[in-house]
Amino acid sequence: MRIFVTGGAGYIGSVLVPTLLAQGHTVTVLDSFVFRQNSLADCCASDRFDVSRGDSRDERTLTKALAGADVIIPLAALVGAPLCDRDTVAARSVNLDAIRLLCRLAGREQRILFPTTNSGYGIGEKDKPCTEESPLTPLSLYGVTKVEAERAVLERGNGITFRLATVFGMSPRMRIDLLVNDFVYRAVTDRAVIIFEGHFKRNFIHIRDVARAFLHAMDHFDAMKNQAYNVGLSDANLSKLELCAEIKKQVPGFVFIEAPIGEDADKRDYVVSNAKIERTGFKPAHSLAAGIRELIKGYTILRNNQYSNV
């Protein structure tokens, strides 16, 4: 298929794009390369790969890039609450306005696969997993823009949205500021971390399983279309303290302490059910433990703080 990816040189795109090429697809990427990354350099050898430097908010650029695409994957976004809070205008224009523009410009037959975030659940109901039918009560501007963008994609039709759990794992365009990636980095480099409100829970998913979810949706599009799907590890709904305990199994010298006072600015706390996408036949292939092992090796290579969004 001919696939158009915005933000294809980001954390997820730098894993997804080579995966799509390996499956025989033709991929065109639009990216601003704002982080000066070279994560798609190896893809340039492929005759089925094309890339443009540009802005996903620009109508002329989008119109040209959309021509001939069978599938559209909009990854371009300001990802995470801290980055969105730093530039609220850009957060709304990139995360929401650009998606609305894309929905308007795309042909009716063109399929959209859109990643959003299960942080839209905000604070979940006690002892009740969040399903795709649960209320969306985002706590941050990032969450608000992604929830509204998801609504635009689903109202437009001929699309699928993925409410991704917190992603972890190595990528050619690495992000150390994601929770698992961050805690493993601290375990490897500092050997210690102080945790605020360690009982807050999240769900997690390996970056390569995110790429696999896109491939799965392409293969099962007609059965899955016009719906949202949680994508995460069903055995990894963990509190921050439980996550640290998992990391300590592989980094024995790691010390983690919950602060007796103070609070985390990020109040998200939820358990997520991934049963809906699992019923379509999708099963994650990468465990949390395997991801931690991978990150430990990766941080033998990466030893600075440039690999983050903020």
Structural description of this entry:
The chain has 310 residues and is α/β, with parallel strands linked by helices. It has eleven helices and twelve strands. The strands form three sheets. The protein has a seven-stranded parallel sheet with strand order 3-2-1-4-5-6-10, with helices on both faces. It has a three-stranded mixed sheet with strand order 7-9-11. The radius of gyration is 19 Å and the shape is globular.
Q: What average pLDDT do the residues reach? A: 95
Q: β content, as a range?
A: 15-25%
Tell me what the CATH architecture of the domain at 2-168 and 204-231 is.
3-Layer(aba) Sandwich
Just give the CATH class of the domain at 2-168 and 204-231.
Answer: Alpha Beta
Unreliable sequence segments: none
Task: Report the end-to-end length measured between terminal Cα atoms.
Answer: 35 Å
Number of helices: 11
Question: How many strands?
Answer: 12
Q: Radius of gyration, Cα only, in angstroms?
A: 19 Å
CATH homologous superfamily identity of the domain at 2-168 and 204-231: NAD(P)-binding Rossmann-like Domain
Q: How many strands, which pairing sense, and closed or not: the largest β-sheet?
A: 7 strands, parallel
What strand line-up does the widest sheet have?
3-2-1-4-5-6-10
What is the H/E order? EHEEHEHHEHEEHEEHHEEHEHH
Computed structural class: alpha/beta
